[in-house]
Amino acid sequence: MNKQIRKIITAAVLGIAVVCSAAAAEKINRFKVVTRHNPHVTNFDSLSSLTVGNGQFAFTVDATGLQTFPHIYARGVPLGTMSEWGWHSFPNVEGFQAKDALANHDFRRGHPEYYSLQIKHPERTRKAVDYLRANPHRLHLGTIGLDISDTSKIRGVNQTLDLWTGKIDSKFEHEGVKYNVETVCAPDADCVASSISLEGGAKDNKPAGNIAVAFSFAYPSGGHCDDACQWEADDNMHKTTLEAGKNSAVITRELDNAVYYIYVSWQGLADIRQTGQHKIVLRAKGGRLSFTATFQESPRVEGPSNTGAISSATHDFVSCAKASANRWRAYWNEGGFIDLGNVKDQRAAELERRIILSQYLMGAQEAGNIPPQETGLTYNSWYGKFHLEMTWWHLVHYGLWNKPRLLDRQLSWYATARDKARAIAQRQGFKGVRWMKMTDPSAEEAPSNVGSFLIWQQPHLIYMAELLYRAAKTDEERKGVLDKYGQLVDETALFMTDFAEYDSVNDRYILRGCIPAQETLKADSTINPPFELSYWLTALDIAQGWRARRGLEPDIETQQVMDKLSPLAYNTEGLYLAAESAINTYTDRRMTSDHPALLGAFGMMPDSKLLDKTVMARTLRWIWDNWNWDKTWGWDYPMAAMTCARLGEADMAVDALLMPKRTNTYLISGHNYQDKRLRVYMPGNGGLLTAVAMMCAGWDGCTSPVPGFPKDWDVKWEELLPMP
């Protein structure tokens, strides 16, 4: 039995042992833990919007329970209506192509390397770059709100999101009339459903029963970071049409080459009319109204009279709400769970709140079929495109929380991107596939002077496929994972092997010609960033193990790289450098800003022959005391926590997760706030879930129970899996 197979078996046994030890305890009352963190909103605050969603479609509301005041929230957490399929491109009148952004960047490797870059000259190339970065962009599909003019006449806001059922209950008073608005999202369709009821008498001789719901549509902005709505655009740039039936209607939206449909159905007496070029109002003839609005990229065969017949689960509000409750109940009962209710440390309540709300946000916004963007399905960042280096933070937690189907759904997308990833590797003179950084569902690479040189997204496919294998419960499931991802693992490892460059002077392999995860370093001068080195060894080791599982011989060239990969470089003070070439790591302020990525070499990654834990412990202390934490990002805190845990610093691990910094702020909704641009940052939420899972279940070879939490913390957990 070879060393790799022994490692695999040992890891599996340890994983089983850890899970079983937790399961022996009394089962956690998951309903009690979840519902004690139901968000509660009492005013109109642009950072307090709440979301319903099914992971592929999300609908974010203000304090009225609908999207009544989108302009108030536009610079906070915007009121988005977004779906995986909702994308748009401005007309490409000048015929720009991906090749227009390519330029050879000479890293002196003996072959041309063509990268997709933000080239500024000549003018046509600059325009091409700008177009390719901004297109396609994610669509805001439409705003659905009460037809109320302003918030000045609204009193008594009392809004709660029931996390267990996925329902938002919103109560308020407007002009003496009490409103009760319930809002849910269907689990199996891009459908939002709402029930509205009124209480109270007439005021100023106006009847109380005047419920009006407005459907309003904007032209896409194509902005780098915004709510994707260009309300001031010429009305003739897009088209909105209404076809009305007795209790249903079809709204057709046409925006350049994009067309989609909103199927509206309602219960009760009401009529629907187009009151503006891009505004449609559904008005009830009484004090009650319930409706569903289903967004689709394709038209239905049936006519408008049957538009309410979506499916048995989403036909009306009642059935939609029931389906939502069933879906969320199953979600909360699936896989891992953590209960900090018995912990005496007062900080535990806030940490548990962040954990629960992060789980909800993932289920509402990041449980679909393509990798998520950093702002989820709330609003656009980087034009709504997703970043493959961030998939580690978005998706790894699904593997550790024992929800492999949600990881598999999104990891499956990589197969559709394979051909374009292979083309990137080929035009740069490498074998295998080189995964792009900033992209969209079509897997087109967006031009970037930074992203095109990143490499830490390369091993993600291997790492996450391994998590799927470890989470599989039967031999048949494990074989299915190997069959599905085996070739992708091989091709990814092939690029990684080829990218590692042999240094004949020192008889070693190095990584260069790249920008590391700490993006303050330059591609032309960076050699051997520590996190990337550790990740290279870890992923190549996994890839070799996969070959053994599939009955294949180890790859000889890969093994040569593994055997002679450079160790992590440190200075005379015994501190790891941000890169072997970054000798001024601790004297140049720019080097101690952005991500302290070198911590990921032993935290995100396991122990290896490349590192010295004593040096890493010393490095951690220096970073803790001296790093420019005001210039960090949301996932830096869980990354630091994982390093603390592996080094036996459990108290520091908790301190890292709760460090009082702006980019470690969690809003009432659970969203990880960064700054005025990024008010939502989902990698922070995913990173938190990854860290706490590892702090509970440990990692391969870990024998300490709950190794990442202080010994006096009574942490209860179940069904979590250890980290590699």
Task: Please provide a written account of the structure.
The chain has a nine-stranded antiparallel β-sheet. Strands 9-14-22-21 form a four-stranded antiparallel β-sheet, with no helix packed on it. Strands 2-3-4 form a three-stranded antiparallel β-sheet, covered by helices on one side. It has a domain at 48-88 and 137-332: putative glycoside hydrolase family protein from bacillus halodurans (Beta-galactosidase, Chain A, domain 5, Distorted Sandwich). The two termini are 20 Å apart. It is an alpha+beta fold and 724 residues long. Residues 1-24, 201-207 and 303-314 have low confidence and may be disordered.
Distance between the first and last residues' Cα: 20 Å
- State the total count of DSSP E strands: 32
CATH class of one domain: Mainly Beta
Largest sheet: 9 strands, antiparallel
**Strands ordered across the widest β-sheet:** 1-10-11-12-13-23-20-19-18
CATH architecture heading of one domain: Distorted Sandwich
Number of helices: 17
- List the uncertain runs: 1-24, 201-207, 303-314
CATH topological fold name of one domain: Beta-galactosidase, Chain A, domain 5
Principal-axes geometry comes out as: globular
Radius of gyration: 26 Å
Structural class: alpha+beta
**How confident overall, as mean pLDDT?**
93
CATH superfamily of one domain: putative glycoside hydrolase family protein from bacillus halodurans
Percent of sequence in beta strands: 15-25%
Question: Level of helix content?
Answer: 25-40%
Report a brief summary of the structure.
The protein is an alpha+beta fold.
Q: What are the main properties of this structure?
A:
32 strands, Beta-galactosidase, Chain A, domain 5, 31% helix, single chain, alpha+beta, 724 residues
